[in-house]
Request: fold
Amino acid sequence: MTELISLADAITGCRKCTRLVRCREAAAAQPPRRFVGQSYWARPVPGFGDPAARLLVVGLAPAAHGGNRTGRVFTGDRSGDWLYAAMHRAGFANQAASINRDDGLALTDAYVSCVVRCAPPGNRPSPGERDRCVGYLVQELALLTRVRAIVALGGFAWDGCLLAAQQLGHAVPRPRPRFGHAVEVRIGPWQLVASYHVSQQNTFTGRLTEAMLDRVFARARAACA
Reply:
């Protein structure tokens, strides 16, 4: 627990990527009308959840007016609404709502993180930004020793998880596993399960449905057993 807190402090103090620092701070300086007057976190966002988690959920990066505003990953935006509602249905969260850091949300047996910790322009981190940031995910995986299943939300998170696993010394199957919804692969001690990202472009269009997401979490729970 202490080591995770120290890692969170290191993450929130990071200024390695000039473009990402500029983007996260610009979002706070010029918020949309619905958030005018609110105080923005505007720093890198650490992981969140149960230090004894057997499930790790990994996303791409904080949203400019979601996690970058609230300071908690997948909080304060529609993507978080979908994710935590699904985790609540699966028994990993005590409530479906994820509004701000003081809303009472608690996770049991689950931890939520992302590959890149700052809100990137257009939700598109560069390869260099990913490579500078993925070390934080590597450290989280090393500290979350009970994790047995990882849900990767989207192709960027899938590739980031494979990269993190390699950096921890685990062999990645060849040919390299390609992302696809509900694809699964065993890497080291983890069952990696893929899901389409919970972004509005997937949930609003029906590309990702609640039933599809629930099946992913059911598979992940089974892998945790």
